[in-house]
Amino acid sequence: MAALSKHWKKIALVVVFVISLFVPVFVQNDYFLGIIILGYVWAIATYGLNILLGYTGQLSLGHAGFFGIGAYTVGVLTVNYEFPFWPSLLLAAIASSVLGFLIGIFALRTRNEYFAIFTLGVGFVIYLVIERWEGLTGGALGLIGVPYPEGIGPIQFDGPESIYYLILGFLILTIYIAWSIANSLVGRSFMAIRNSEELAAATGINVGRAKQLAFAISTGIAGLAGGLYATYIGFLGPAIVNVPTTFEILLYLLVGGMGSLSGPLVGAFLVTTLFQFLQQFEAYRLVILGPIVVILIIFFPKGLAGLWAALETRIKAMRGKGEMSGDAGASEEPAKEEAK
Amino acid sequence: MELFLQQLVNAIALGSVYSLAALGLTLVFGVLRIPNLAHGALYMIGAYVTYFALTSYGIPYIVAIGISAAVLALIGVIVERLVFHPLRNAPHTHHLIAAVGVLFFLQSGAQVLWGSEFREMPSPFTGIVNVFGLNIGQQRLVVIFASILVMVALYLFLKKTVPGQTIEAIEQDRTGASLVGIDANRVSMMTFAISAALAAIAASLVAPINLVFPTMGEALNLKVFAIIILGGLGSIPGAIVGGFALALAEVFSSTYISNAFSEAIGFLFLLVVLAVRPTGLFSKGA
Fold first, then answer.
1. How many domains does chain B contain in total?
2. β partners of residue B119
3. Of the partner residues A120, A132, A247, the one whose CB lies closest to the CB of residue B104
4. Under a CB-based contact definition with an 8 Å cutoff, are residues A117 and A61 in contact?
5. What is the per-residue pLDDT across B92-108, written as a single tens digit (0 to 9) for each?
6. Which of A161, A178, A289, B117 could hold A24 in an S-S bridge, CB 3.0 to 4.6 Å?
């Protein structure tokens, strides 16, 4: 029993993983499976934003633009030039990351709200370019017929089920990347910057370079998500690149919890699937979500992950008091004093 | 030459609308340090209130604008109390995110309530006036004169009246203003009320030329941010100069270069300026 409560996180992780492997077996309906696939795609994009906003504390409002760069790199290369999918996807991630790095040189000279607005402008310009460059992107009509990936050896990508596993694989890869960043020195320097730029600089962190790196990783992941989106949906229109998409990704992150490892997945998956299953509320989606965003940011700025963490500490404290007569309580007291 | 002058008048009319909307945004930013991303949504709601006052209740145009300004001032106060007041000590990213929530709510609320169709706002000023050989729509003249009137009134209010001076005092030095007994809460509410009312007036003035629809504030939202960043966040003269500058750049690039370019020019200019001067052109030094 003690072992169970000690390792329950790992056990839960394995259970979730096994369930995710069997989803296509249980969900025979292509429509529902599609919703889950899209939930994963948005989760990947949200992980990208989390690295910049959640870890490093920089709010980029141009995230959808980089998602679009990735999506259209795959779209243009495969549709217009009949390029194979896999190198296109690689190029999509690289292109959006490099573009993010280059834009970051200028964007990250600005701070706080200036940075948010600068990136908002970047996102909007990317949208305008994609919408107006008809020769390349098909303009408002978009690109039709982005193919499924080519098979690798015996594995063929010919239907929603195989695409599901493909995107699940990339999601796990993204989570692994996010996890390793969070536990690395680089990740810790990101978090130091979030907590205080001045302090981070004083401890010898190269703030400019760290932010630049966070931005390039974040935009690279957004591009990857975009590329996957393109191949799954098969159609690309400029609307997906526009500013409201950024706001939606921001919402997923906020619901799940900024700066947490599980937050992007929980937020993106929960919000996208919940509203797809409640189709009759589709029109009221944002009317309901708007106030939820406000309530979350005022009362629970750390989202569901934060709520969960608070609940966990409370349970631990209660259990500690019951079992060890106030041992845990005693160890908590000094921490509270410090917080004051 | 005639085309040039004609477009110049159009640019001035557009610029006065931009300036009015940007003034509201810059006031809120200067006083409360809140980049209110929901400003464009308030602008849109303002246009709808005027529209319904005109069409459903038959209230005269000018009076309808006044009603719209009053309604939006009230909405501004409610938003300040419910959303931004509880966040006054939160990190700046939280303000932006909360504002996005308000934007979601207002914009999709309008869509649910009033549908997404484009509506034409009837205005009594439909004639064309001939000024020095130029044919100018009456509505454009109304836009220009009403905007100047509102700007002068705002200037007098901020400089010559006690409540207006409290706004400036808070903007200059929050602690100092509190020390001499200025109620920061009251100033916050007042600033939001004025900001939303200005957005409503701007939207109601331009709506008969353009159209009324739920996403009408989207493009404007980005533009007013570009304007106030160029003009320096919180700077009133900066907002006015920036508004006219953007309108001139847009109108003339669409006349002489291309339509697509004119939409992007504001942002391109914004990006260039911020890349060179990360705190805006006329910032007081952040």
1. 1
2. B212
3. A247
4. yes
5. 788 888 998 899 899 88
6. A161
